[in-house]
Amino acid sequence: MTRGIVNRILPFSSVDGPGNRTAIFLQGCNFNCLYCHNPETISDCLHCGKCIEECPYGALTLENNKVIWNKTLCKKCDKCLEVCPNNSSPKAISMNIDEVLKEINKTKVFISGITVSGGECTLQCDFLTSLFKEVKKMGLTCFVDTNGSTPLYNQKELIEVMDMAMVDLKSYNPKEHKILTGMDNKVVLENIKYLAGINKLYEVRTVIVPKVLNNHYTVDMTSKLIASLNPNIRYKIIKYRPIGVRTDMIDSYTPSDEMMEALKNIAKENGCKNIILV
Ligand code: SF4
Ligand code: SF4
């Protein structure tokens, strides 16, 4: 049976798509964003064992050269994440579809659907597609939160079962996007156009990072693109916040409310009808 590497499952989330949702974070990402807010989801665990001795509660052990996480003993202090030199987590586990469904069943009556995020969830496309096929049978909606780097127009099976996607457009400038993430934004832009064309684009997201990015240009160009595709697609403009994120690779600060309002006005003047500031 198809298996996925799951970083964690959040039973309830109100910020990962419409309504109350169960959010599932898959391990592994092909971007390496300077301001990554989930750096422990980037890489697969190398089982180097470095985190074992740092766990104050004895929740990590080495068995057959593999780090084993004891969920019952874990107190969620995240000391293991702080010391991992590999942007990984010993708490990411391999799960089959039935095991994930068992978790979703616990929240099923309280949620309208699931959102699968990451890391970059579309890198585990077969697992994602199989999961969505089963979740749809439960009468729940299936959303994807993606960095947009996987050509979704080539993943017809996934697209068929996926209700909608939320796509990050971190920078409109391909060179700047590459400096920020490690990859240019060609496929991201193609995905946004493709998903809008089939009415499966729920939201485009941009994080505003003063000093580092040309935020004005990105919001201007992105909002023009959204307005040309469908002005009702939501544009979420997000403040960079140096809390719980990798801060050693970036020199920035949280943008002011005035700056955010000015960016919102640009998007509004360009024709976007559904803009939210976060
Ligand atoms: S989580 Fe990091 S530190 Fe721990 S075993 Fe894996 S790679 Fe090593
Ligand atoms: S989060 Fe859990 S496994 Fe990691 S160090 Fe803390 S108690 Fe140990």
TrEMBL record:
Keyword Ribonucleoprotein: no
Reaction catalysed by this enzyme: glycyl-[protein] + reduced [flavodoxin] + S-adenosyl-L-methionine = glycin-2-yl radical-[protein] + semiquinone [flavodoxin] + 5'-deoxyadenosine + L-methionine + H(+)
Span of domain 4Fe-4S ferredoxin-type: 37-65, 66-94
Record domain Radical SAM core: where: 15-273
InterPro entries with a match to the protein in the record: 4Fe4S_Fe-S-bd, 4Fe4S_Fe_S_CS, Aldolase_TIM, BssD/PflA/YjjW, Organic_radical-activating, Organic_radical_activase, Radical_activat_CS, rSAM
Transmembrane parts of this sequence: none
Keyword 4Fe-4S applies: yes
PROSITE patterns, per database record: 4FE4S_FER_1, 4FE4S_FER_2, RADICAL_ACTIVATING, RADICAL_SAM
Cofactor: [4Fe-4S] cluster
Keywords for the protein's UniProt record, in alphabetical order: 4Fe-4S, Iron, Iron-sulfur, Metal-binding, Oxidoreductase, S-adenosyl-L-methionine
Family: Belongs to the organic radical-activating enzymes family.
Protein name: YjjW family glycine radical enzyme activase
Organism: Clostridium ganghwense
